[in-house]
């Protein structure tokens, strides 16, 4: 079989067992990897109502059929488990080098079961795996852990995915970092790893991906190298990183500000990508085989000096610690980012819980007695930075916030729920649904809770109608509509982006993202060149649909209902400032749109349950 | 725009009006041509409950986006109208040269409206069209009409599609023939043409199809030329024509015999493709740009001498006039075929009504008094040939049979319905559903009534599982199953074959037909090379789905219900002989399968009505 190693690594930490399993090629072809393949295992192996932080939960690392080919965008991998944040399907993807390295090491999937009685790490190398003691790195930062592991195994090129204090302390939005800066950020999977006493997975391999048609891949790599600069958004990412989006989003009135009260930030110039480039950026970095190099390396200025090893803040991070908290210091944002990467915290959820606490404080739901003396007003830079540390270490208010806004607001009471913005328990990313309604559908309907990478963003779609025609959408759709034509657009783009999560491809290199260089049909060519299959966009999209149905079934089994596919109240209230001032989501429109989406997915309109005809159609039910 | 001329020719025969209209490229892309584009017009322009033989019916000739490119399989066109046989969606496709010629003449679609007060023919040539007097050819055979028209316009290369006596006499299964042998056979569209006093449409053009990437098309033509001989079924078609199927079908126990009582014919050797080749075949012919040349030219032997101009019988024709009527003389079959082509009768329906009459006669439902003295037993060769002529001219019993088995059995009464095998009023083609259950679904669910070209036939599918994987089907399905896996297979193959009817491609050159040379993904390449679009199999299959939904809506509007999606009783009874003796369709299985198909199509499970979510999803409803 091309593309995959056909080796599944199954580790049971309770009994120190290591197994290698094979799969039928049909299973690989039906699920492709990443989200899809992980769900295949998760749904059949996890008992309903499993405690996400108990040993019965399983943590699955999965790469895709195309991961590790020498082509921009194929560096990624998914981590999947039952989420301690949502209590449902939890997933997070990351780029970097770890995913390709796992494939080079001879495996496609790692399934971690049970829990170790003492801290361990996993050392996976060239078709082999060992469970190793991690006592010496427990309680250490990701950087300390990485350095120690590289020293242990005597290889400085080992790729290490590890948790920090947050994962160890079961912070419900703890993440997993590889190379200190590429994060499987969302869903609290770092806490699942911590609950298993698993500090890190280190991988090293010397195989390369065997492709059916390597010349085709080489040709596409050459084409990409020659063409990506022709795409202005790709050039912008190369110049400013994702931070280049800060000013345009603000100008558009959709830069989340002060816990989503507003869509513009009056001091945006001080946290922009341009400001960052002019002050603290010292280098750029990228993922395996990608020339765009959209990651920044920064060196923050005193009093917020930072260590360049931890990379620099992305757009999401800048908005979460910047405008969302009304913080105007890019170095402070960089430091918060560093702390998140060192302690293993998701920057989006962390920024959100802090903004939530500030909102509570300003509305007198939290008092100074309850904030460990912090004057938690929007714009309090020191408090923002301090809270990151307190959350990771579960100190004082940080211990409450470490539960995420949903649980924290329930603990705080006094109407704090009003300021807790989340979907299914997951905090909201830095995209304002009132200014691009596709996000409203995406947040409400993403199987892992509020997520901004489950469908294209409306403005970028408006610029790329030609490029989504292979999906059968031939006309642009108003970005503020929630009508049937938007639901249709959303459905196909949701499937398309889910497909990218199954093959584990980067959403920045593919259309209809504004950085899209590869077109939709390139993916079909690439999968065929790798595997030797004669697949089609039709078949690949069915794979994506399988993953969405399996995720849906998983969530229903865990007790989710239609009521969980909804938005926080704030988005039904008007935006308070900027070009989109007054914009709000109509509850009635949203309800109709969600029900229409269910129908389009062949899910029951009242409960969202996949109909058996759909499962038969996808070959999921015999 | 590439591929199409963007010229719709609209002819109103009542007021002698000729118009040329343009379409938005989006309409072309959403419907592609043929069945799809014709339905786009038919559904929006035809009033519900229109009399199919009245002037309000519209007769639409449509070619597809790829028609006329210099590549095997792209010679075809569809004729569509409300059918006088089914009273619902009526369509028939034909190959040959007429379709390409229409494109070369500068048009994509001809919509014929109204009815002329006197016989006319239409002369379409190089971006121009004229309505001409046809008094001199009314009452003439297709050959006489063709010769007269060629003489009239002074061009021996004019392609003529015309009706014969049957169409003039409103025989409900009258067909339209081009070049005397390529038939738009089914649905009685020749009668619609006759009802409009339109004898023929003659076309001639000197343009060629403008393709975005002509080199690609040339390359594929070369590839096809080099590869088609490697496919044994294609070679067989080249050697024996479709008649090569007679012996294998008989050996398999699925050769319709004696009005579907049996699946084997004891004298099959005398009507086989081999027998035909050894006795009466004098040449082979083919369609535009196709090297396979699967059509035969025959010269029947006395007392059934034939004129080679009318071609030779296909598999369907041989079975319909041969085994179905228990006739064992290949020359007699060839003569029946010639009469059908001269008088413009569908050979399948004609054979079926004769077998029906024989079955009635043998069961004493018809007596010699009612058969004009014919001893209408199975195997009476002379009576079979005689009846063809009587039907075309509506003489004696022929006048009753000219109404089709459904209406004829109602007129005859006395339980004749038991011998009248049809779905939606259309007679059953020469494929035994009890031996390949995909046919049961195809017959029951085809929007134009019993049709054998709406989905692949199970045995051929079994041989080509690799080739249908682009449709997402990765495993073979038992040919006798009616379970969910068969419904899924049927759904995707039904869509795929409907797609071929939208682009107007030949079902013999594409997989999963056993003659398939082009693979499924070739079609995507070909459409892209012609149009310059960046389409996908996903988008193309949506087009097919649009056509099936529009056809469904058309039929529902005309009063069809779920009860019309069903099979004649005989198929629920055991086959009486041969290797499949005892095989029967289970009513319960069929009902479940049909309801599951509805659900898979997002049609209401109880009524078969397309749900609005499906129409929104396809962009058919805003």
Explain how this protein is built.
The structure is a homodimer. Chain A has about 625 residues and is α+β, with helices and mostly antiparallel strands. Chain A has 3 domains: about 10-205, Aldehyde Ferredoxin Oxidoreductase,  A, domain 1 (4-Layer Sandwich); about 240-420, Orthogonal Bundle (Aldehyde Ferredoxin Oxidoreductase Protein, subunit A, domain 2), CATH 1.10.569.10; about 440-615, Aldehyde Ferredoxin Oxidoreductase Protein, subunit A, domain 3, CATH 1.10.599.10. Helix content of chain A is about 40%, strand content about 10%. Chain A has helices at about 25-30, 35-45, 100-105, 140-155, 165-170, 190-195, 215-225, 230-240, 245-250, 275-280, 315-320, 330-345, 345-360, 380-390, 395-400, 405-410, 440-445, 460, 465-470, 485-505, 520-530, 535-555, 585-600, 610-615, and strands at about 10, 15-20, 60-65, 75-80, 90-95, 110-115, 120-125, 130-135, 160, 175-180, 180-185, 200-205, 280-285, 295-300, 420-425, 425. In chain A, the strands form 4 sheets. In chain A, strands 2-1-6-3-4-5 form a 6-stranded mixed sheet, sandwiched between helices. A 6-stranded mixed sheet of chain A has the order 8-7-12-9-10-11. In chain A, helix 11 runs parallel beside helix 13, helix 12 runs parallel beside helix 14 (about 380-390) and helix 20 crosses helix 22. The radius of gyration of chain A is 22 Å and the shape is globular. The two termini of chain A are about 25 Å apart. In chain A, about 65% of the residues are buried.
Mean pLDDT reading of chain A: 96
Helix content of chain A: 25-40%
Q: Compute the number of strand runs of chain A.
A: 16
Rg from alpha-carbon coordinates of chain A? 22 Å
CATH topology name of the largest domain in chain A: Aldehyde Ferredoxin Oxidoreductase,  A, domain 1
- End-to-end Cα distance of chain A, whole Å, is 26 Å
- Tally of contiguous helical segments of chain A: 24
Structural class given helices, strands, pairing of chain A?
A: alpha+beta
Q: Oligomeric form of this entry?
A: homodimer
So, the CATH homologous superfamily of the largest domain in chain A?
Aldehyde ferredoxin oxidoreductase, N-terminal domain
The CATH architecture assignment of the largest domain in chain A turns out to be 4-Layer Sandwich
Domain count of chain A: the total is: 3
Largest interface comes to: A-B, 44 and 44 residues
Q: Mind describing the biggest β-sheet of chain A?
A: 6 strands, mixed
Strand percentage of chain A lies at 5-15%
């Amino acid at each position: 079989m091309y593309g995959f190693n056909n080796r599944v690594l199954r580790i049971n930490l309770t009994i120190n067992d290591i197994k290698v399993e094979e799969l039928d090629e049909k299973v690989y072809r039906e699920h492709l990897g990443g989200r899809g393949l992980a769900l295949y295992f998760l749904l059949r192996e996890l008992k309903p109502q499993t405690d996400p932080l108990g040993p019965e939960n399983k943590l699955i690392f999965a790469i895709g059929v195309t991961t590790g080919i020498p082509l921009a965008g194929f560096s990624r991998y998914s981590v999947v488990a039952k989420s301690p944040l949502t209590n449902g399907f939890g997933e997070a993807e990351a780029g970097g080098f770890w995913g390709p390295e796992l494939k080079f090491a001879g495996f496609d999937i790692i399934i971690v079961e049970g829990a170790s009685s003492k801290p361990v790490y996993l050392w996976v190398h060239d078709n082999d795996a060992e469970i190793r003691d991690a006592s010496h790195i427990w309680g250490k930062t990701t950087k300390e852990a990485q350095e120690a592991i590289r020293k242990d195994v005597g290889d400085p090129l080992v790729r290490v995915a590890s948790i920090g204090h947050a994962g160890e302390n079961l912070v419900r939005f703890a993440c997993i970092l590889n190379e200190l800066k590429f994060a499987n950020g969302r869903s609290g999977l770092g806490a699942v790893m911590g609950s298993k006493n698993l500090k890190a997975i280190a991988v090293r391999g010397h195989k390369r991906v065997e492709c059916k048609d390597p010349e085709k891949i080489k040709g596409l790599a050459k084409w990409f190298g020659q063409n990506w600069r022709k795409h202005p958004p790709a050039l912008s990412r190369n110049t400013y990183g994702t931070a280049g989006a800060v000013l345009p989003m603000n100008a558009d009135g959709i830069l989340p500000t002060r816990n989503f009260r507003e869509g513009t930030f009056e001091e945006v110039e001080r946290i922009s990508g341009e400001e960052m480039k002019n002050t603290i950026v010292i280098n750029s970095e990228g993922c395996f085989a990608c020339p765009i190099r959209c990651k920044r390396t920064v060196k923050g200025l005193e009093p917020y000096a930072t260590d360049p090893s931890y990379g620099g803040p992305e757009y999401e991070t800048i908005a979460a610690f910047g405008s969302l908290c009304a913080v105007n210091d890019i170095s402070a944002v960089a430091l918060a980012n560093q702390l998140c990467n060192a302690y293993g915290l998701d920057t989006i959820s962390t920024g959100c819980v802090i903004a939530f606490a500030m909102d509570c404080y300003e509305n007198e739901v939290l008092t100074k007695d309850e904030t460990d003396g912090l004057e938690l007003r929007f714009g309090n830079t020191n408090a923002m930075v301090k809270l990151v540390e307190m959350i990771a270490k579960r100190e004082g208010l940080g211990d409450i916030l470490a539960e995420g806004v949903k649980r924290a607001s329930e603990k705080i009471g006094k109407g704090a729920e009003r300021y807790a913005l989340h979907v299914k328990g997951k905090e909201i990313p830095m995209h304002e649904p009132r200014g691009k309604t596709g996000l409203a559908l995406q947040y409400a309907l993403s199987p892992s809770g509020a997520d901004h990478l489950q469908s294209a963003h409306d403005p970028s779609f408006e610029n790329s109608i030609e490029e989504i025609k292979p999906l059968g959408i031939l006309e642009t759709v108003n970005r503020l509509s929630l009508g049937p034509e938007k639901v249709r657009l959303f459905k196909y783009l949701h499937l398309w982006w889910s497909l990218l999560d199954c093959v584990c491809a980067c959403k920045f290199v593919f259309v209809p993202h504004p950085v899209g260089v590869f077109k939709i049909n390139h993916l079909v060519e690439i999968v065929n060149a790798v595997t030797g299959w004669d697949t089609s966009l039709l078949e690949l999209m069915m794979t994506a649909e399988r993953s969405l149905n399996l995720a849906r079934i998983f969530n229903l089994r865990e007790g989710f209902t239609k009521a969980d596919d909804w938005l926080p109240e704030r988005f039904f209230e008007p935006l308070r400032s900027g070009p989109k001032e007054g914009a709000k989501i109509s509850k009635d429109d949203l309800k109709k749109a969600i029900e229409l989406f269910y129908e389009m997915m062949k899910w029951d309109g009242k409960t969202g349950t996949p109909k058996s005809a759909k499962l038969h159609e996808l070959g999921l039910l015999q």
